Structures are given as structure tokens and as C-alpha cells.
Amino acid sequence: MGAGPLGDTAPTTFAPPGTGREPYTLEALGRLACRSELEEAEAERAISSVMRAEASPSQVAGLAMGMAGKRVTARGPSAFVRTVMEFAEPFPSKVLDACDTGGDGHGTSNISSTAAVVAAACGMPVAKHGSRGVSSQCGSADVLEALGVDIELPPRTAARCLEEAGITFLSATVFHPRL
């Protein structure tokens, strides 16, 4: 315990018992709760903990809510992107990643799936990346599943589809379930 952004009695770090890993810092959650911008190092530590599965689901949700509830500047999100990319598996070829958030909260329709098919039809290799709809009418996974596409392809099968058909779907639940 110590003096932290949540008060004198709030823990400043949390590590899952027995992990021996770098602790997930509650400092990031405290700063976000106060609507403060995360420093790059704080953002990097927080997302690293998420990517290593050290953060609990409630901590991941708190981090996402904290980021959504504040003014976005380039510093925090760029640190998140850079850190996530450190955990990413490289893709073997040049390919268009037609991804959307699906979370605009306005009940919109999914058009990125259509755009992905059009781009592939024009000869651009496409890895359509997405998930089910949460706050929109439907997500990419919902659209493609309705069209008969197997949306839970393992990585090797997805890569083979890209090679043979010029398009593949990368399910968020398969490729990065922690996010």
C-alpha cells in the first residue's frame, strides 16, 4: 500500500498471485478516473499487462472505459498501438486489413465487409478483421457468418484462404481474445 492516485490506502500495483510477472499498475486506472492523460510509460505498462493476460476482465474494462471517457491525444493511443504491435504476429505478405470498430454506438450497418469483398475483387489481398456486432446492427462476423463463411478459422487456415482466394477473415476472438 502507499500513496497513489486512488488515495493513501489504495494499492498502487496488482499482480496475479504466483505469476512473478511485472505487475499491472492501478496507477493508469487512477489517472484515467481523474480524467488525466496517461504518460506513455503508463500506457505501455497497462496494455502489456492486458496482452500478457495479467489484467483481470474488470481491469481491462476499466481501462477501456477510462480511455473512452477522456479527451484523446496522440500520446496515449500511440503508446497503446506501439505496445500491441510488439505482441502481434507478423503477417507473411502485403495485405489490406479491412477492420472496423463496430462500436460506434449509433446502430449503423456494417459496410467494411462489403468494402473488403470489393477490394479483393479488384485484386488486393484482404484480411478482413473483426468481430460480432456489439453496439451496431451487426458486426463483420455476423455478416460473413450469414453468408456461410467459417468465422472461427485458425491462423494457418486463414492464411491458406488468403493465399488461395485473396481474402480471409480474422476473427477477433481467435486472433486476440484479450482485446
From TrEMBL:
User: What InterPro entries does this protein map onto?
Assistant: Anthranilate_Pribosyl_Tfrase, Glycosyl_Trfase_fam3, Glycosyl_Trfase_fam3_N_dom, Glycosyl_Trfase_fam3_N_dom_sf, Nuc_phospho_transferase
The Glycosyl transferase family domain is annotated at: 94-177
Q: Which UniProt keywords apply?
A: Amino-acid biosynthesis, Aromatic amino acid biosynthesis, Glycosyltransferase, Transferase, Tryptophan biosynthesis
Q: Name one GO biological process term.
A: L-tryptophan biosynthetic process
Q: Name one GO cellular component term.
A: cytosol
- GO MF terms held by the record: anthranilate phosphoribosyltransferase activity
**Region of interest (Disordered), residue spans:** 1-22
Q: Which residues form the Glycosyl transferase family 3 N-terminal domain?
A: 27-88
Mark out the compositionally biased spans (Low complexity).
Answer: 9-20
Protein's UniProt name: Anthranilate phosphoribosyltransferase
